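REVIEWER CHECKLIST
Item 1: Sequence provided? yes
Item 2: Single chain? yes
Item 3: Sequence as submitted:
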Amino acid sequence: MSVSLLTIASELGGISLMAWVVSGYLVASTVATPLYGKLSDLYGRRRLLNISIAMALCGSVLCALAQSLPQLVLFRVSQGLGGGGLMALSQTIVADVAPGRERGRYQGYFSGVFATAAVLGPMLGGYLTHYLSWRAVFWINVPIALGALLLSNRALARLPVHRKRRKIDYLGALLLSGGLATLLIALTRIGQGIAWLAPSTLSLLAVAVILLVLCGWVETKVEEPILPPAIMANPTVVLCCAVLGLSFFLLIGSSVLLPLAFQATEQATADRVALKLLPLTISIPCGAFLSGRLMVRQVALHRLLMTGSLMSSLAMAAIAYTPFSMHALLAAEMVVMGIGLGLPMPAALVAAQLAVSRDQVGIATGATAFFRTLGGAIGIAILTSMLMAAMRESAPAGATMQTVLASSSTDPTALRDAFTKVFLVAAGAPVLGFLVSTRLRKRLTPV
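Item 4: Structure as written out by the authors:
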């Protein structure tokens, strides 16, 4: 999607809603992820995975048919409600079939598939957008989703299904969904240029806090809480979630801002942007694969988290000061950043799964996926907000964001300075992840 954003905004209009094409999906998937995790613990993985795939498929078709940017944002939300379960449920299934650190080996297989998708995704997105239409980015999901449904029904037939009827925490789910959605809407509006201290922003944040506090209280009273307090009171799970959230702050933020930077400063077409991003997109799953192999060889999990956080932070800081004309150096820096972003993914997930009992693996996995997407949504909100503010400082009076980003007459030096500031802020998130990882040293028990 990232390489298609300017094309979509140009065709459908409404540059102010451009961030919502990404954030709308993230908001919906973030809210849905813990629900999928909990419900899969109660009713079985396959059923919830099939529902997730079907919802994502329907959302993709609606996105392909959108006639305006508000419609596309709405349909991206519906797509996100399905997408919220895809990664969390598939990784939970790995925990069902693989013991202890053997999950690292299976996560390596995961990463091989992820590598193929990570390479083909942005490249196909760029070429489809350039030679056909941005709508083809959504239509291509149809055969993939249908194939996934067939595989899910056949390969997962032996997974256990819980027949016992249990109570569902509808009130907790409603409060959690409302609180998170309100919080992320407030953050995304900030990313669109609304002031942090604006009355509307403060009102949304206040409502989010109230709803989330009420949710926390309700979860301590019900028999089957959606987000069990014991999970969020587990220090290892919380710290692993924090590391993943900070990593995805950089990952999602860079995946949106780097294409915008290439298009704005070099007037690169969508297909060229896809090729420029190739070193990053292929190195992230390579880092995750390497992490899985190192786990099997008994490398300490906290070392993987610390090393990955440090590598990604230093590489992003280097990218901030590297001229985009230095293609080889920029590619090398993106490779280092990608490997650094990939290393913590399976390590933090396995550490969180090992820290809980078997009947809570689903919700623990859902919690890690939840904080990943939450970190990404917060990253986009903060980084795009800073980018817009920096661009307004150098833009002519009355210029719109679309004019600044798309016009070849815009001062390239001013644009590059704006992106440099934002990239440096993004580089700070993994630094916090490194500090959090040091706290895990005494909590991760070798398995």
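Item 5: Key structural point noted by reviewer: DSSP finds 20 helices and no strands in the chain.
Item 6: Recommendation: ____
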